[in-house]
Design a protein that fits this description.
Layout: E1 2-3, H1 27-50, E2 67-70, H2 73-87, E3 94-96, H3 103-114, E4 119-121, E5 131-136, H4 148-158, E6 163-167, E7 184-188, E8 199-203, H5 229-244, H6 246-261, H7 263-266, E9 270-272, E10 283-288, H8 293-302, E11 305-306, H9 312-315, H10 321-325, H11 330-334, E12 336-340, H12 347-368
Parallel strand pairs: 1-11, 3-4, 3-5, 5-6, 6-7
Antiparallel strand pairs: 2-8, 7-8, 9-10, 10-12
Helix pairs in contact: 1-5, 2-3, 6-12
Length: about 375
């Protein structure tokens, strides 16, 4: 099996442990609560290590009491967006995001505007008053790396009160980032070889969000419900492994991506889908013109090569909406597949997958008389 769908989910490393309720008053509950406290501290420390401007004395360091655990990136993004909107519903607010962002950004933003809880604004026309911009650190479809510092500086020049929310699901422990202009940062466990169903967000102290769930007051009152202690601990362990080897992994995955990128030199009519040259080595989106992406994905899976057509959250309803919204043609979007890599993939896998892709693409093109 060659698994190149790591942008959807990664294979978990480590094993769950400490199956106790952190809110229980007995010694086992206290032990679990202490483990969660340690996990917050480790995540805060890792974010500070990943911060491009961590040596800038004017930047306030991330602290453990700014970490909130959730069920994953989708809930974190919903809490950031809807939590902000509901906290400002009397005063009113504006939401700004690109139409091709992940559905967990565009979905809650669309709901908030449809319900008249907030207004939709654009990057070109930043209104005065309360506003939240939601942007991904790395685009989930194409791997484009957003220059968050540049985006934030341009927007805050027009409106210094704008809050910057960054979806770091595809970037956490893979790329460093300047946190000095960021107010909320979300992360997801299963994108970094942690378990499914766990993630969180960093919310800078002083930011006001309304919780979306109510009950026992866990997570600083921001997210009621018993914390997934074993999942959080396992996620934190995976985070420490990946963060400790971020530069080594970056070089390794770059070589894997380059091996697949060589498909352009072997097959005609292969296009790279990205908005810039500044892309993550962890994601490669290619269009094989003349072959439907869905057909090629299924054919490759039968050969033991697992890739995708883009975000799993979107693929069953509108497979390539994001690419078309970025300006790519319908033909190019519908012939696209996404390879996404992990530090645990190998160059041998890349070379083997490349041969299988070539054979299958040629086969389908010949059937359609494309060659």
């Amino acid at each position: 099996m060659i698994y190149f769908d790591n942008a959807s989910t990664t294979t978990p490393i480590g094993s769950p442990k400490l199956f106790y309720n952190p809110s229980s008053p007995h010694t086992l509950g206290i032990k679990a609560e202490r483990a969660l406290r340690e996990a917050r501290g480790k995540i805060a420390s890792t974010l500070n290590d990943l911060n491009n401007h961590s040596n800038n004395m004017s930047h306030k360091k991330v602290t453990s009491n700014e970490i909130i655990f959730t069920s994953g990136g989708t809930e974190s993004n919903n809490l950031a967006i809807l939590g902000y909107v509901l906290a400002n519903i009397r005063k009113g607010s504006n939401l700004i995001s690109a139409a091709y962002e992940h559905p967990s950004i565009t979905g809650p933003a669309q709901l908030a505007c449809e319900q008249k809880w907030a207004n939709s604004a654009s990057f070109e026309r930043i209104p005065p008053g309360n506003a939240l911009i939601s942007v991904s650190q790395i685009n989930h479809e194409t791997g484009d790396i957003n220059n968050i510092s540049e985006i934030a500086a341009g927007i805050k020049e027009k409106n210094p009160d704008v809050l910057i929310h960054v979806d770091g699901a595809q970037g956490f422990c893979k790329e460093k980032i300047n946190l000095s202009e960021i107010d909320i940062y979300t992360f997801s466990g299963h994108k970094i070889h942690g378990p499914l169903g766990v993630g969180g967000l960093w919310m800078r102290k002083g930011i006001n969000l309304s919780p979306l769930t109510y009950g026992g007051g866990q997570e600083l009152g921001m997210r009621a419900g018993t914390e997934n202690a074993p999942g959080i601990i396992q996620m934190t362990e995976a985070m420490e492994i990946l963060a400790s080897r971020i530069d080594i992994s970056h070089s390794h995955v770059t070589a894997i991506k380059q091996a697949l990128l060589n498909l352009r030199d072997i097959l005609p009519d292969v296009e790279v889908n990205s908005l810039s040259e500044n892309t993550s080595p962890y994601i490669l989106n290619l269009s094989f013109l003349g072959v439907k992406g869905e057909v090629l994905v299924h054919a490759l899976s039968e050969k033991g090569v697992f890739v995708s057509m883009g975000a799993a959250c979107r693929s069953r309803k509108k497979p390539h909406g994001a690419l078309e919204l970025m300006g790519f043609s319908s033909e190019r979007a519908q012939s696209a597949i996404r390879f996404s890599f992990s530090p645990f993939n190998t160059l041998e896998e890349a070379e083997q997958a490349k041969g299988i892709v070539i054979d299958e693409a040629k086969r389908f093109r010949k059937m359609k008389g494309f060659l």
